[in-house]
Amino acid sequence: MNIPVLTRRSLLSSLALAGALPLAACGGTSSDGGSEAGSAASGSYRIGVLQLTQHAALDQTNEGFIAALDEAGIDYEVDQQNASNDQTACQTIAQTFVNDGCDLIFAIGTPAAQAVAAATQDIPIVGSAITDFESVGLVETNDAPGGNVTGSSDMTPVADQIALLQELLPDAQNVGILYCTAEENSRIQAELAVATCEDAGLTPNEQTVSSSNEIQSVVETMVGQVDVIYAPTDNTIAAAMAQVSSIADEAGVPTIVGCDTMVQDGGTASYSINYIDLGRKAGEMAVRILSEGADPAEMPVEFLDASECTLIANQASADACGVDLSILDDPEIV
User: Fold this and answer.
1) Angle, vertex CA 128, rays to CA 330 and CA 234, nearest 5
2) CATH of 158-272+310-333, one of 3.40.50.2300, 3.10.360.10, 3.40.50.150, 3.30.70.20
C-alpha cells in the first residue's frame, strides 16, 4: 500500500507525488491530547480516499471527485491511499480511516467500497467506479440506499458497445469476453455482454483471469479462437490494457473495450462514459453530505446518461487489426 498523502484543495500534485510526502491521517490530535475527529475541531472536513488500484479510469475518477470539492469551495483535507489491487490492504486502509475519524470516505472501485462499508456503518461513504451498488450488497436498492453508502455508478452502455463492435466488424462472429473473476461488477457486465451478443446472433466466448498474472496466457489463447475481444470496465484488465492490446494487435484481433482510458492504453474502440465526470458527480454528492447535511440513505445512486458518452477509437490499434475507422460518425481518435 502507498504511504498516505495529505492534500488540501488539490489532487493533481498528490497524484504525481503519491508516496513521497510525510504521513498524514484523517484525524489529528488536539492540544489537550484528545482526538480531533472531523470539522468540528479543525474547521476543515477530513476526507479519506481509498482507490483500489492505479489505472487511468480510477485516477480520473479521483481527479473528478477532488475537482468537485474545489468547485464547491469547501475547506477540506484529504488522505489519499491506493491499495494496489490488494483486498487486505483495502481492509487495513478502511479501518485506519475509521480509527482516524474521517468525516467522509470516498471509495473508488467495488472491492474498496466493500472494505469501507464493512469497516463502518456510521461514517458517510461515497463510492464510484462501481457498476451496480445493489447487486454487490453496498445498498439496499440503488434508488433508496438505506444505509451510509451511496455514490455514482460506472455502468457502461454494453449494448451500444456491442453495436459498435458489429458496425466496425460486420463479419465478426466469435466474440471473446475477457474479465477478472475477482470482480463482481465485471461479471455483471460480462453477463450483459453475453446476452447482448446472443440477441445479436453473435457467439460469445467467455475467457476469465483470476489475477493479472494470468492475462498474457489467457489472451494469447483467446486470439487464436475469436474474431474480436470485448473487455468491460474491469480494473484488472484495464490496468493491463497495454499488454492485452499488444498481444491482440499482433494477432490482428481488435479489442472493443469498456471505457475511453482503455482505448488510450491500446484498445481499438469504445463507446464510453467519462470518468472525470463520474468522479465529479460523486464529489458533488459528497459536498451535499458534508455541507448540506444530506443523508446517504436517502440519496439514490447516480448514473451518467447516454448523452454523456463518447465514441473513441485508437488509430494504431485499428491499423494493426485492419479496422476502417472512417465508417464511424465523428469519433475521437487517439
Assistant:
1) 65
2) 3.40.50.2300
